[in-house]
Amino acid sequence: MANVRSFREGRSKLMDNAEILQSIQALTKNARDTRELMSETVALLQRERPHYAWVGVYLIENGELVLGPFVGKPTPHIRIPLNKGICGAAASSGKTLVVDDVRADPRYLACSLETRSEIVVPIARGGQVLGEIDIDSDAPAAFTDQDRSLLEEVALILAKKL
Ligand code: SME
Predict the structure, then answer these.
(1) Which domains does the chain have, with CATH numbers?
(2) Would the CA dihedral through 80, 159, 122, 8 be positive or negative?
(3) Which of 28, 39, 92, 152 sits most deeply, having the most CB atoms within 10 A of its CB?
(4) CA of 110, closest atom in ligand 1
(5) Is the minimum distance from the CB of 75 to ligand 1 under 6 angstroms?
(6) Which atom, in ligand 1's list, is nearest to the CA of 84?
């Protein structure tokens, strides 16, 4: 607990969505490069939203999703074809996917045995999907409309920098 508090620089309260978006906007100016921007963004999201157990960015490279910066347990899914997984489905449709129960979704590629729900938000610019934000939670149906709107705004911010 002491650790978590100091990590939040003494704040006991979590940031609201607007504060998170302001912080990520600030990162777009202060980060040295896009990799640092993505790393800081996934770390900030996990720190401020404790129900996000795993937060990562996948980028499309040569027609497949390639794992970029992430926080959480290492995943075996470093490269995902666009026709595989919930990640592939979100990237190929260009639409946010929320899966309340991953165990009931035949598309699901398991990353951790504890994962119960997942949200995947495409990062797109000018109609072209460049990548996505992928988040797992250990709680079923963990992702609300609040999470979705926050993460879709984050994706818009990142899209301008990719
Ligand atoms: N669950 C994802 C794979 C990525 S891991 O969760 C990090 C999927 O079904 O596409």
Answers:
(1) 2-161 (3.30.450.40)
(2) positive
(3) 39
(4) 1
(5) yes
(6) 10
